[in-house]
Batch of 3 targets.
Target 1
Amino acid sequence: MGIRATVVAVLAAAASLQSQAPAAPTRQALFDDLVIANRILANEGVVDGYGHVSLRNPANANRYFLARAGAPALVTAADIVEYDLDSNPASGSGAGYMERFIHGEIYKARPDVTAVVHCHCLDVIPFAAANVPLRPMYHMGYFIGEGVPVFDIRAAAGITDMLVSTPALGQALARTLGRRPAALMRGHGAVVVADSLHVVVAKAYYLNVNARLQAQAMQLRANGVTSLDPEEAKKAVQTYERSWEFWKSRLPR
Amino acid sequence: MGIRATVVAVLAAAASLQSQAPAAPTRQALFDDLVIANRILANEGVVDGYGHVSLRNPANANRYFLARAGAPALVTAADIVEYDLDSNPASGSGAGYMERFIHGEIYKARPDVTAVVHCHCLDVIPFAAANVPLRPMYHMGYFIGEGVPVFDIRAAAGITDMLVSTPALGQALARTLGRRPAALMRGHGAVVVADSLHVVVAKAYYLNVNARLQAQAMQLRANGVTSLDPEEAKKAVQTYERSWEFWKSRLPR
Amino acid sequence: MGIRATVVAVLAAAASLQSQAPAAPTRQALFDDLVIANRILANEGVVDGYGHVSLRNPANANRYFLARAGAPALVTAADIVEYDLDSNPASGSGAGYMERFIHGEIYKARPDVTAVVHCHCLDVIPFAAANVPLRPMYHMGYFIGEGVPVFDIRAAAGITDMLVSTPALGQALARTLGRRPAALMRGHGAVVVADSLHVVVAKAYYLNVNARLQAQAMQLRANGVTSLDPEEAKKAVQTYERSWEFWKSRLPR
Amino acid sequence: MGIRATVVAVLAAAASLQSQAPAAPTRQALFDDLVIANRILANEGVVDGYGHVSLRNPANANRYFLARAGAPALVTAADIVEYDLDSNPASGSGAGYMERFIHGEIYKARPDVTAVVHCHCLDVIPFAAANVPLRPMYHMGYFIGEGVPVFDIRAAAGITDMLVSTPALGQALARTLGRRPAALMRGHGAVVVADSLHVVVAKAYYLNVNARLQAQAMQLRANGVTSLDPEEAKKAVQTYERSWEFWKSRLPR
């Protein structure tokens, strides 16, 4: 690990400690919550058989938790693997997602990020294809006001199979993401980041809802659709905790 | 409570007495119905993890019932709080919805109103964003013929977090609503009012359905869509009682 | 009953006898099938809390069966009422649907019709509002090739509450329907007729599906959408029996 | 069977043997998988009461398995019939699908094909009606990059009932399909082929999803929508195995 990565990790660990005033959750509790995140994303249609969600280890900012390769709806605690930030497995077993570098490279570049979702989010793919910037249509999509750039893998690596399956591609995606809460991936889907697992699930969900609202508004009026003012968007921060409880209650037993 | 509010409360109490020829329902029966209203709104997709529905106390027009803060799908009778019209809790416990002033201020301004829904109704948000007035597309959306104004919180209070979280903002929303059955809230959702709990749930539901119909008709023909004649809309009053029975039967056990 | 109605009834009875080579189903079996038709229409979203489906009595062409007023999803065999063609109850009890004249007057005018659906079918209302004729987009919507006229109640009776709640309005609707398989009702919904209960349910269902297909095709290409050739539509007759079995299997227990 | 068909069958048998390094599945296991394929297609909305999926017999490339006529959701292993490539039953009983020639004639013409789906896929019918070519919008629809031609039955046979109900019509469809992974059928639906049962189910599913994405992108921007580069599409091959596991887990018990 280079100096930059070390600094990032130390900063992230410090941030993590600060926010851990209450007793840290056990690893089992973390895994249980990560399993619920997987199942919510599938049950609410944010992911289908593909897509993944990860969580930075609160006890070690140089590690993150991610299920081994499999459909999110079917993930159990036994499937969770711990990876280092180069996306090599540190504990756990099983073939990993080919695109786990999305997670590792973003955790390296963004010490403020605690959780990452990658999805083939259907509502946003048309926006990348049509090159129409997403805008915050209501307070639940407030974070879109920070900007949602589009990652075109062709600009980074020419003709590919579209997958972010190497550290270099993960780094290129992280660069496009910058300090933003989400990035679209042209011809592929999106990546969403946040400082908590519950919030990243909600942002991935509302990124899609907001895209539908924008498409519908643009259908009613091609030009002149009103979105949140940038300052409104900054103020309209959501915790989404009520969404998490709602979605959890809707999971099939 | 000022003179105006007192007058309003007395008038509302009188109206309430008139309509109470049959034995008044017990508080438990009222709470049970309010719980069902919460669950129907969630189950039919009018609200998600956010949104709320309240009922004026039929035994005291200066009070209203509203769940404490939580996802509507998870509300139980134990969560119902009684508020005065300034939205201070009169009985019950737990943190209240930050936006309960929507309810209290409308009850003050509208003695004819017995129930209020606030939702982030997805189908109507694009209409506020595109500044396209809703029109009554079929008899089930007849009340839209009375007009559905758009509340822009920026006109009332400049840059905000979009939430109607103070008495002043609630009053501004009530002024925009005027005598109408509903108002859209730009970048946020809608508020719907009625003279019964069952009807307010149905009007919130059909406000959305009607918006979808209008968007689809406008897609087929940009100009020249026919909606109900204003006089037709006045005549096509619905009780929606059959909808309530249907929706109730569809609730998960 | 006038001479014309008598003639119609006799012809219908004759047609009914011809098609009854196998042992006639018992009244209980007929009622059970009519209950299933109600529940399928609700479960597949053709009707919501409102709408109705009726069946001509195969043993007496001057009578038809229709549930008493209530949500279709909740209809049981005990709710079925037998009506004469003037829509007066002949047996059974309970308040009738205000719009039962839709059924009675169509049975009078159309001896070939054995079953009638009235729905607030959401996908077709925009077509009536936009005055865009429905066209048969695929073989499952073949019957649309016979034409689907639009009934505008205002042309028949001026300003109304939009409901077909009198014999005269039912007759006006039947005149607009003519020999066609369905008619849209402006600002209201649709009526669909067929020579069997299973087929009328399927035609109501596919009338909606076909409308969605047409709207989507018109969105892709404003002019020049290809629908079935009129002669193709005539040949592509469906029994839809496989749909009935599928929908029946999907009913909640 | 003519010489050409014999050659095709021998080649297919050879290909089949090569890919059968592991012990061949029992006939019961094949039937169980084919039943699951039927049920997934119905449960995920790719087929409704109509449509079918077949599998070439891995032990005899001149035979294929297809359920007898019935709704896909209700198919059981007892319903599977074995057909020769002229679509005559070789074992099993019951009336066959009138359009089984779609399957037989494609197996004859395409020794590389192991499984075939025919559906009235709603999302693609508008594309054939509007004559808008499908394009690969994301990696999950990569195969669309090979081209999806439109079969117009009128060009092959004039006015018909739209059904591919003869060997000659099946051959005409197979000619239009050529070496492609799928073909739309104007005013009818689509046919999808693949070298495995799991993949053909997934390609039928994603053909529809991709069509929705393309329609939505074209709504945002009438011209200039970006789809996968042809070389990207070639590289982005999917096994979709994770989708199969996900869809299987969602089947009603």
Target 2
Amino acid sequence: MTDNIPPSLIKELAETGGEFYRRGWALGATGNFSVLLSRKPLRLCITAAGSENGTFDDTNFLEIDDDAEILQGFGRPSDETLLHLTIYRLRPKARCILYSHSASGIILSDRNFVDGSISMQGYEILKGLTGVTTHEHTERIPIVENSQDHVAQSHVLQNVLIEEGNIRGIYIRRHGLFTWGETVAEARRQVEVFEFLFEILARTGA
Amino acid sequence: MTDNIPPSLIKELAETGGEFYRRGWALGATGNFSVLLSRKPLRLCITAAGSENGTFDDTNFLEIDDDAEILQGFGRPSDETLLHLTIYRLRPKARCILYSHSASGIILSDRNFVDGSISMQGYEILKGLTGVTTHEHTERIPIVENSQDHVAQSHVLQNVLIEEGNIRGIYIRRHGLFTWGETVAEARRQVEVFEFLFEILARTGA
Amino acid sequence: MTDNIPPSLIKELAETGGEFYRRGWALGATGNFSVLLSRKPLRLCITAAGSENGTFDDTNFLEIDDDAEILQGFGRPSDETLLHLTIYRLRPKARCILYSHSASGIILSDRNFVDGSISMQGYEILKGLTGVTTHEHTERIPIVENSQDHVAQSHVLQNVLIEEGNIRGIYIRRHGLFTWGETVAEARRQVEVFEFLFEILARTGA
Amino acid sequence: MTDNIPPSLIKELAETGGEFYRRGWALGATGNFSVLLSRKPLRLCITAAGSENGTFDDTNFLEIDDDAEILQGFGRPSDETLLHLTIYRLRPKARCILYSHSASGIILSDRNFVDGSISMQGYEILKGLTGVTTHEHTERIPIVENSQDHVAQSHVLQNVLIEEGNIRGIYIRRHGLFTWGETVAEARRQVEVFEFLFEILARTGA
């Protein structure tokens, strides 16, 4: 529960969570959505662990500062809070981070791609990614290993985000996809693009 | 927003869009549905880019003339506006054009079929296509290459529509299916027939 | 439209139709559900062709006698009306016939099974079929060829129904499944059992 | 019908049943959910056979004692009542038992795993299982043969539950998954975790 997150945003996030759950992109999941409240100082709202079935409301959000300390709300923050903070720090335009996991995505993340990333090219739907204007675009999603050492993992993410200026998502192997956007709608549209292509790639063995 | 499109039609299109989205045939998509308002002069309503999640209302429609100029409404017309105009010009009975993209359809569109088209025969559901009275019918959907040069692509479509008098849909490779009908219901039923068969063909390797 | 079909039955059939449509078992379909009104004389209500999207109400039903003549209601009877009549004649307990077609079912129906039928055994869910009390039961669904000669096809069905006293469904190849029951609920539960097993068999190549 | 089951619990179970049905995890099914009313004496509520389509209310529940005798309610208890009783006896914390069956789960249950169990490791979603704090966890679900001799089968389950102190579910081959939890929400979350991983494993042949 936090005073600082507008009801319309809660509604948009809840609608997104319900849709992800319905599609099987959020099964068994604890909360993993966030929105930026301010940059200076860095403040974000993140769903608390235990926001299940894709259903949540304002009581499921915690307000967090840049040390991952809880400023408002009750509950345990998501294990991935440090990863969210890292993404917001390294991507100054990001105002929303969404997490999804599908069977297809996880199957793909387990393949040994030559350059360690899921690569997608030649699909019109890539134009659903902000800034992409042609299907001839190549989009790469780096795959990083999963770890329960969240400090170490946030450093790995930090390095990836610094080295790869153009990526729009990161896949943690056998875990799920982190995507971000300037708005909830943008982040959600990008999740849809990626999950749609994951299904195609997982089914074709590409 | 346009004065000229009846609310019942908006409702029918919105219901269709919601259903396509639910089935995963419109993920990450910007608008790509149109209806014909008049033939002489040629006027159509087309969903504006940015009509997401399968949800839209009258504010998502632009009224367009036969030079693709916006007569009413706000927003950017779909990149495929020229393709819609081409189909209406070459198919005098068409009054609605729908666009769908499924994982199965895109997987199929990427196969190298001998005659460059998706071919379907022997299925009872083909009788859901207007004018088809037996499962022994062979339906072909030509596959054309995708291009961001929409003028060039509309010429390609024009040639296909002239050469192939009997086709009911065109697939743009790795993009999606364009289908048309005299009514929204007819176009939608044909999308359902095609997408159903795409799933079968994609799964069987036929 | 018919006076003789109780509103509660319409509601149950409409709910069933909506569910089949949602699951992708009734895409692109015209009407193909029926209920028995009386045995002597033989009277049935059958959805008219054009009952789309799994949505229908009492206006979509035609009352038919045993010559397939329309007694009440407007519209064209389903192409499969003769098949419904044949099933009611040969299965004296049947009071509801449902039709479904799924991608998995059609894929299966196209395999060359040694005895020309889809065979299912060893699954607990078989106990969802009326009269089956053990998973060790073997259920067979004969596959017959599709034909637009509905008189000839109803004779084929008649022979199958006479020869195979224990079957609970018939698959018309590349068309769909006909199942029946004493009630809508029974017929629907049997469709669910069959379609569930079709998915398993289609995916495993069994 | 039983006086002893709180309406909020009925609602939660009904919502869970509806969701399982929607996902295709409860097709063709008769009732197979239970909650513990008291430990001493052992009393449970279990859905009666015939609770279909994932829809049920308080009239679908029977109150049962530890001899599987009906104390309240009308109808035939589920064939698996003895299995529920066995699980409650051997798992003192369990207060809810859920049953699900998916095509993927049944396909998996039919593979000949070396140690006779479905084994899952390395997936972040395993942390959705109570007590699991790392993806490096290995979760095993023993597979037992199906039998219509429910007394014999409850003995088999009893042995498995005694020998394997850490399991969170048991799969009856070609039948379905039994999972339990201290609450409906916990049991449901565990079903989601398992069914999600079953899809991945069934699709990858692992």
Target 3
Amino acid sequence: MRGISYLLSAVLAMASVIVYMARASEQADGKAPPIFGVQIPPGYRDWKLISVAHEEGNNNDIRAILGNDIAIKAYREEQLPFPDGTIIARLAWSYVASEENNKVFGRAQSFVAGAPTNVQFMVKDSKKYAATGGWGFAQFKDGKPIDEALLKPCFPCHVPIESRDFVFTRYSPSP
Amino acid sequence: MRGISYLLSAVLAMASVIVYMARASEQADGKAPPIFGVQIPPGYRDWKLISVAHEEGNNNDIRAILGNDIAIKAYREEQLPFPDGTIIARLAWSYVASEENNKVFGRAQSFVAGAPTNVQFMVKDSKKYAATGGWGFAQFKDGKPIDEALLKPCFPCHVPIESRDFVFTRYSPSP
């Protein structure tokens, strides 16, 4: 029994090491999802606003869509396809009724951003991501990328909007 | 009769001139509402994101709240009261179901920004706007300010949130 127990421990320890190494290799500095290798663009929270949206259903979030300077220029000049270097960020927060605001309005009508949900990026590189319409996809929460399997449906989902270079969000004109 | 008619015409003409001069004086270059004198801050659409929200009821809009650099710094450093020079912009668009997005999701769950509704500003100047908590208020649509009467309820509505320097919107942490 002791021999089998020892062998089992050794196998489990080896398995742990293999899993650890695989994860370390996949995630590099903890920011790079394995398929597209997209990292969190520094300073993305300072980018300019493209638009806002609300998703019900499983997401039940409220979101802002921001763009780097290349994205904003392309949007404002209605340039399609988006040039290489475009990055579009989708920041999502839980969709929360604001009791504080409703008190002032005198009725339940106000919904605000609650806890952060996740941030997604679309990165345009027509050569590197040729197989997915020129776009690399990524999703992070608290700086950590999601599992590779969850990024695979990204591009197929964007295919119906090929006429706008696979980008759903339209630029919202200033009021 | 001709004398009375002439007199009436003259009075009406004078009235027109007086109304015109009053309007010109009030609105300056067409951007300044009369109470607070706040004009549209140049480049406000390029400001950084504070948060997002959705209002049902009469507004039925989806909105982004942006801040100038002074506002963003104060928010991120949790500085209260906001320093003079702070400007907070609230951009609103009509709240529209996206048929395009719903097709992809396979169900009605997506709401996006439609036509622009209006943009509001809160400008901090603790001396100039001492009577209203240090804040000046403004609202514009297509570059035109709304009528003075519609700005009067702004401050009373913000009084319940005096503990956060009369500002409802909280800074949304990055996902």
